[in-house]
Structures are given as structure tokens and as C-alpha cells.
Amino acid sequence: TQLGVKGRCGYRCNLGKDLGYRGGAQIQAMRLLALNSDLFKNRMFRRVRNEWVLPVCFKTCLLSLFQFPFGRRLPCDIYWHGVSFHDNDIFSGQVNKFPGMTEMVRKITLSRAVRTMQDLFPLEYNFYPRSWILPEEFPLFVAEVRMMKDSDPSWKPTFIVKPDGGCQGDGIYLIKDPSDIRLTGSIQSRPAVVQEYICKPLLVDKLKFDIRLYVLLKSLEPLEIYIAKDGLSRFCTEPYQEPTLKNLHQVFMHLTNYSLNIHSGNFIHSDSVNTGSKRTFSSILCRLSSRGADVKKLWSDIISLVIKTIIALTPELKVYYQSDIPAGKPGPTCFQILGFDILLMKNLKPMLLEVNANPSMRIEHEQELSPGVFENVPSPVDEEVKVAVIRDTLRLVDPHKKKRRDIQCQTLEHVSEASEELLDAGRADRPEYEASRSPEAGLPSLCLKQVFPKYAKQFNYLRLVDRVAALFIRFLGVKGTTKLGPTGFRTFIRNCKLSNSNFSMASVDILYIDITRRWNSTGIDHKESGMCLQAFVEAFFCLAQKKYKSLPLHEQVASLIDFCEYHLAALDEKRLVCGRGIVERRSAVVPCQTDGLHLTPAAHTPLLNRTATASKFADYRNHRY
After folding, report:
1. What cellular component GO annotations does this protein have (predicted)?
2. When comparing pLDDT for 227 and 67, which is higher?
3. DSSP annotation string for 362-421
């Protein structure tokens, strides 16, 4: 396998020489995997090769991937980008990045998405620390902290400040009081999130640690989520003490970032997955289990955290997706590996720290041999976890997997029970055996466990904002846009019958202008003018609270969604009936070629069962603001 430093690197995959014969025609399968060369170009000129995990998987996953080092004009089945989705000339296949994912998991955007869900379901989303967005919410932060201190004088909080676009621990610091925030200069040009610091984490060997879990978002619609059965535990390198004014600045005690702690003199590189400053999560679970901890409940809580977080992210992801890959136009499907950083509290409650759109897939680390001279040393812990994640991701997104299953079924139908012994005797020479033999036969079981839609029934009630986003996308009007104009918002109000004598269209315009102006002032993307999804969600919540005043917020929103969906379904039915009626009237005036008579169309059957839904929404028709 050769590496390319120019253009898009392509990999060809030959899934076995011949998959079999069917009707005399030779069936061959060939796959192409295109890689963005940015993954390699920074490493091509090092004297010691820095091995990245994906090429290793090509050698071990038995899928026979071959590279086109200088790209390829013909389309590929899989495109593997290094950072984000950025190709507009891909019209088929699968891409390993979702449009907008990098933006969605930034600290501010993630905090806003989770906060929306906390407004609806506060108990279900209590796994994310209380957060404030700087600089816009700095006065609110100061006021709320003062109020909480007044109500509880014994409360002595610590807060952690994280720059919005920061990574690898860059720019993170701890404070004891809002007045300690560094507001001069940098915070205005570099927004940040400030959160309550978790002062009582679970310790192992007196050290604080976090968990990096790998999550595969295989599909957005329908939603399909997989979680790796093992992950990484990254340790601090100084014994933990609760924050005080004296130790606030000791990053090796409080921050678990690998990129920071690797520079500590106490960092331990170990060939064992059970020791050192980076270990497997499974080794931690074994240790907890030996102490009598309920490991099954812990895994259940982590799975719940992952599903709920992705449910919070999917509404806006769908807006980005339809913008880059509009419905009805040729385009690729997407999947993505995410890195979830989770901290365990002393009571084993998992807390979400952040989500990484581009988790590191290096399986070795640099070791300084002498000043300025480094050598890349393999990391058994990274290799054990990351190779399995990439390998099984390729297996799950294999575009020919279904085709192989179909061929196997077709072949086995032609193999009778009477000839089974003959087949066993000479199966290696038979084309039918080539069809039934899977390239995955020599691979271990999948390390990725499906958690959604497997547990969909337990979490579907949380997907209210998803349904609001569907309404937003419906009224965007122009394909490829991400913001709703005033005309689209008025059409939404009119079609859903939300205006009346107490809420006129003039009030609709005022609501649109006020909310859109406020969101635009927060630094939301100004490339397009109009109302972003977050602003639309706020407007929708406002309408729900006006219409259903006596209900909790999530019931208000659910009721308004039902109300809107009902009227839009009725409108769609009316349009279909009218459209079909026009076609039928046109066909009715066409003379019959055989006897000169006119054809009379049959009576049209309604497309929706209005009787079944009328009772459900009877109160909606009579309701007024």
C-alpha cells in the first residue's frame, strides 16, 4: 500500500476474486475507498514513520483494501476525510463525516443544544454541568452565582472556563469567582463556556481520570447509533485534591487531557492495558467490579447519556445535512466516529465533558530520546481500542455486505440437502462456496454495539426538537439554506393556523424580528440572513406557552407539534386530492379511441382517515390564544 501526498488518496477493495456464478454470469465485487491525503502529508517526511490506525486496519480487516495514491476520477464507495465534510463533487458512496458536525460539537453549540433539552426534560439531561456562554451571558453568570451564594453561604463553587474552539486542553483554566474570568481582550474575540467544576470525581490510585468512548453515528435518518464496548481511560499525573486557591493552576492535577499530561514528568507509558497513565476502560470496570460496584448500571447510564446527547444534536445536524445534500439530488450518505469524553463522579454517575468530531486515531506516541530528537513508539492500549473501532466501522458501512448476503441466499437455495456431503468434500473448488464464504469469517465479533434503534422505545419521547426541526426544514423554501426568512415564517404560521384575532400576522412579524435579531447578535453565522433553527425553536416554545398555558413545557411543545402536524397533513391531503382531481378532469375529456365515448374517473378515496384523527384534534379547532 502506497501513501499519496497529492489529491485524494483512493483505496480499492477486492472482496475476494469471484463471489460466485449466477446464470452463467460472473459476479465480481470491487470497492473503492478514497482518503483525504491531509491525514498523511504532515507525516510523510518524518524519519520514523508515524503509523495511523486506518492503514493498519486495511492490513488486518481482511477486506483487501488497495490504495489509489494520487486519487481517482471514477467514483468511490467510501470517502474518508481527515477533519470535516468539505467535498461538493461527491455524488454517491459514503463519507465518514456529517456536514456541520464539527460546528455542532463545539463547546458553545453543544451547550446550547443540551440546554434546550434541559428546558424540556431537566431530569433526563442532568448529566451535563450547568453552563454559561461568554461573553453574552456573563452578567447572567454573575447574578446567578451571587444568588446561589446568598441562598447557601456554605456553597464554595469552582468553575472551569473552556474556549469555544479550543482543543487538547488549550486555554482551559479554573476560577473560584466570576470576577476571576479573563475578560480583557481574548474573551471578546474568543468566546468560551464556563461550567461548574466537578469537585468530587471518582479516583483510581488517587488520580483523577476521564473516559474516551468511541461512538459511531451510522445514519441520521433513520437514526442509528453504535457504541464501542471498550474505550480509553486517560489519567492525570498528580494526585487529586479538591480545588483551592493554591492548586487551581496545577493542570496535571485537574485536567485529564492526554495532550497536556504527556508533558508531565510523572506520565507513565505502559505496555499493559491495566497500568500507566492511559489504560483501557474495561480494566477500570474490572477493578470497579471487584470492589462490588454495579458495572451493568454504569454501562446503562453511559449508553443513556450517549443516546440523549445525540438526540440533542440531530435536529441541527439535519438542517446542515439538507443544506449540503438536498433531498432529491444525488449525493453521498454519511457516517461518523465521535469521541465522547465522560467523567465518573464519586457515586459512579457519568457526566458529559465534551464531544469530539475528530477524535485522535493515532496508535503510537512520541518519545524524546534526546533534546529535540523524538521516536514514535507503539501504544498497545491505543492499538487495542482504536484498530477495533475503525475495523468494525468499515465492516458496518461495507456497501457490499447486503449484496453478499443476497448472493449467499440465492446460492444456498440451489444447494439441496442431498448434495451437502459432496459439497463438503469439494467445497473449496466450488464457486458456490466462494459465494457463501464471508470475508469476515476470520474476524472477531464486532466491538461496536448497536444502542439505537435497539432502545428506541425508551428514548423516542425525547425527540420533540427533531419534530420541530422537520417543520423548520419544510418551510425553508430554497434548498440548500439553513435559515428561515420572514415569508417562510409567515407561511408556517398561516398553514398551521396559528394566527387569530389575539395573535395577528403583525404580531407574527414582531415575534420573528425580535427573536431573529437577538440570535443574530450572539455571533451565529452571518453568511445567511434569517432565522436559524435555535431561534425557530425559541419562537416555537413561545407559541406553545401562549397556546397551552397550564401544561409543563414539554407537554406544551408536544401538543403544539401535534397541532401543526395535523393541519399540515390535512393541507397535504387537500393538495393531493386537488392535484388528482385536475389530472382526472383532464383525462375525462380525452375521447375513447374505440367507441368515441368519454371515460368517467372513479370516485376518489380520501388519503387520510379524517374520522380517526378528528376526535384527537377536536379541541385544537376550537382553541384560541
Report:
1. ciliary basal body
2. 227
3. B-EEEEEEETTEEEEEE-HHHHHHHHHHHHHHHHHT-TTHHHHHHHHHHHHHT--GGGHH
The 3-class secondary structure across 310-365, one letter per residue, is HHHHHHHHHHHHHHHCCCCCCCCEECEEEEEEEEEECCCCEEEEEEECCCCCECEE
Least confident of 14-28, 75-89, 298-312, 589-603: 14-28
Grid cell 448434495 — which residue? Answer: 419
**Which phi and psi angles does 288 have, rounded to 5°?**
-65, -40
In the chain, the amino acid numbered 72 is R
pLDDT tens sequence across 107-150: 999 999 999 999 999 999 999 999 999 988 999 999 999 999 88
Parallel, antiparallel, or unpaired: how do β-strands 30-36 and 224-228 relate? unpaired
Residue 15 has pLDDT above 70, yes or no: no
Q: Is 38 helix (H, G, I), strand (E, B) or coil?
A: helix
CA distance 230 to 209: 16
- Residues with Cβ within 8 Å of residue 623, at least 6 apart in sequence: 547
> Which pLDDT value is given to residue 186?
54
- Per the CB < 8 A criterion, the answer to whether 311 and 87 are in contact is no
> How is 491-521 classified by DSSP, letter by letter?
HHHHHTT--BTTB-HHHHHHHHHHHHHHHHT
3-state secondary structure of 450: strand
Exposure b/e, 598-624, CB count within 10 A at least 16 = b: eeeeeeeeeeeeeeeeeeebeebeeee
Query: Which stretch of 172-176, 600-604, 609-613 has the lowest confidence by average pLDDT?
Result: 600-604
| CA atoms of 10 and 77, how far apart (whole Å) | 10
Of 305-309, 499-503, 553-557, the range with the lowest mean pLDDT is: 499-503
Angle at 351 between CA 537 and CA 309, to 5 degrees: 35
Classify residue 234 by burial, with Cβ atoms within 10 Å: 0-12, 13-18, 19+: buried
Of the candidates 273, 337, 382, 393, which has an alpha carbon nearest to the alpha carbon of residue 82? 337
For residue 43, pLDDT over 60 is answered with no
Type of residue at 158: T
Measured distance CA(311)–CA(306) in Å, rounded: 9
**139 contacts 179 by C-beta, under 8 angstroms:** no
Q: How many CB atoms lie within 10 A of CB 537?
A: 24
Cβ–Cβ under 8 Å, residues 368 and 358: no
This prediction's pTM: 0.81
- φ, ψ of residue 337 to 5 degrees: the values are -95, 125
Please state at what angle helix 553-588 crosses helix 533-547, rounded to 10 degrees.
Answer: 100
Cα–Cα separations (whole angstroms), residue 268 to 57, 238, 259, 275, 279: 27, 12, 13, 8, 10
